[in-house]
Amino acid sequence: MKKLETANIAVMVSGGGTNLAAILDAEKKGILKSGRVCLVISNKKDAFALERARRAGVKTAVVEKGEGTQEDFEGQIVSLIEREHIDLIVLAGFMAILSEKFTSKYPRRIINVHPSLIPSFCGKGFYGLRVHRAALDYGVKVTGATVHFVNEVPDGGEIIMQKAVRILDSDTPETLQKRVMRLAEWKILPASVEKVCADIVSGRNRLHNES
Ligand code: GAR
Predict the structure, then answer these.
(1) Where are the alpha helices (DSSP H) in the chain?
(2) Which partner from 38, 99, 168, 210 sits 20 to 30 angstroms from 70, CA to CA?
């Protein structure tokens, strides 16, 4: 087995890609040092996240489900992941469903950022601005973000990091989304990516030294 210096990361996106930008920035600053973003996969061909990846010189791929089956969609993603020898898949605003067949293939190798304090406002139907609207409608005074491993339960995998954000009386879903991103997501996502990559690298090298 080869000694591993850094883990190969694929980031999966659907939209603006500010979380991708936070990861790329952390890599540039050396905060993310145990992993390298080598592939960005989008399920939307016009996602601005693709442009951010290109500007950073990162390889991109578009896999749209369109009229195709879930199996075809995931099969194309698996091919890309295998071709690039990806060690960690990061879902950063990836808005498509991944089946149990896919998630069970990569146990503790897929992480996701969710814009609430799980187990509040999460699971099926809770994504993007809807999460913040639900938090405001409920009247909670504190929300935040969570990074967790992905398993077959939507937003149900083991929690890696969380950060709380206070809700202001004047908040709208839009202002709250921006603040949760700035104060929580853009901090805990790169930090979690580094933590998981460091674990992958040290686990792999322990095996290497034993063999
Ligand atoms: C982020 O707020 C992320 O937490 C959320 O979508 C936004 C993507 O923004 N993800 C989910 O709601 C997943 N359930 P970005 O494209 O600028 O990173």
Answers:
(1) 18-29, 48-55, 70-83, 100-103, 129-138, 173-180, 186-210
(2) 38
pTM of full prediction above 0.85: yes
**Closest Cα to residue 148, out of 103, 179, 105?**
103
Question: How much distance in Å is there from the Cα of 207 to the middle of ligand 1?
Answer: 35
Question: Pick from 54, 19, 27: which is nearest to 39 by CA?
Answer: 54
Q: Say if CB 78 and CB 47 are below 8 A apart.
A: no
Atom of ligand 1 lying closest to residue 47 CA: 16
pLDDT in tens, 78-93: 999 999 999 999 999 9
Spans of all domains in the chain: 7-210
143 C-beta closer than 6 A to ligand 1:
no
Q: Which residues of the chain have pLDDT under 70?
A: 1-2
pLDDT of 194 reads 98
pLDDT (tens digit per residue) in 151-197: 999 999 999 999 999 999 999 999 999 999 999 999 999 999 999 99
208 catalytic, yes or no?
Answer: no
CA distance 90 to 49: 13
- CATH topology for 7-210? Rossmann fold (3.40.50)
* Ligand 1 binding pocket includes 93 (Cβ within 6 Å): yes
